[in-house]
Amino acid sequence: MAEIDQPSGRRIAIIAGGGSLPLAVANAISERGNVPVLFAIRGYCEATSVTGYRHHWISLGQFGRLFGLMQAEHCREMVPIGSLVRPALRELRFDFKTMRMMPALIGAFRGGDDHLLTRIARIIEAEGFEVVGVKDVAPELTMPPGIMTQRRPDGAAQDDIAKGRAALVAIGAFDVGQAAVVIDGHVVALEDIEGTDALLARVARLRMEGRIRSPAGRGVLVKTPKSGQDLRIDMPALGPQTVAGVEQAQLAGIAVIARQTLLAEPEAVVTAADRAGLFVIGLQA
């Protein structure tokens, strides 16, 4: 396997799920003079995300294999990144180490996504590894504060943003979702287990069915972390696909929390938003 020449800095493990972010994080780590080692999750991570970097393939639930490989690679830090569908406990590929961890894993699965991920982070740290976030190893991949686009939110959009943030605070304790669509002060949809793309598709369908009667070009997608969310392992994300969904839903723009949101392909996000006449803004926490 041909590999990019690696510097002699810290060796940082990337637990790589789907999408473009694992490769973006690997590139950012390398550019900072450190050494990314990717642990690609079978069935989620694309082969193109690991090309050129040192990597290993693992299956969900192979904690023993993961810990052993990380020790062999001299990685004490790990950053989980990329899309991943929450598996059922029966879908995990158990190795001997995982079997010994079953009581803790069963407890982790009894709750929402944030509960699950936080408990798994504790399991990993109990083995002597440090879980770090993208904001720790590649802060340039997070959303900057301010308006990124030509269009700016008007007064109605600002009111919708405030209403969306309040709605997400209200549901945050239930560990449900981290996105809301608000149109003219009306919370028309909240994110559930299907995720942001499905949320936006639902809004587009409601418009087509006449359930949403507000004119096109009004309303905002608001994304914020849930209350107490561990941003090292689960940070809201914004990418070109989100922009496409907002355009299909005929909204005015997107508001996310600056420095607490992953920004995948920022140039593509701004280009797509400007072409569609949308605003994108990073809010102060």
Write up what this structure looks like.
The chain starts with 10 loop residues before the first strand and ends with a strand. It has a six-stranded mixed beta sheet, sandwiched between helices. It has 285 residues and is α/β, with parallel strands linked by helices. It is globular. Helix 4 packs antiparallel against helix 5 (113-126), helix 8 packs parallel to helix 9 and helix 9 (240-248) packs parallel to helix 10 (266-276). Helix 1 links the parallel strand 1 and strand 2. Residues 1-7 have low confidence and may be disordered. The protein has two domains: 11-138, Rossmann fold (3-Layer(aba) Sandwich); 142-283, 3-Layer(aba) Sandwich (Cytidine Deaminase, domain 2). The chain is built from ten helices and 13 strands. The protein has helices spanning 21-31, 63-72, 96-100, 102-108, 113-126, 134-137, 155-172, 196-208, 240-248, 266-276, and strands at 11-16, 35-41, 55-58, 77-81, 130-131, 146-147, 179-183, 186-190, 220-223, 237-238, 253-257, 262-263, 279-283.
CATH topology of the largest domain: Cytidine Deaminase, domain 2
CATH architecture of the largest domain: 3-Layer(aba) Sandwich
> What structural class do helix, strand and pairing data support?
alpha/beta
Broad shape: globular
Q: Provide the CATH superfamily of the largest domain.
A: LpxI C-terminal catalytic domain
Short summary:
The chain has two domains: 11-138, Rossmann fold (3-Layer(aba) Sandwich), CATH 3.40.50; 142-283, LpxI C-terminal catalytic domain (Cytidine Deaminase, domain 2, 3-Layer(aba) Sandwich), CATH 3.40.140.80.
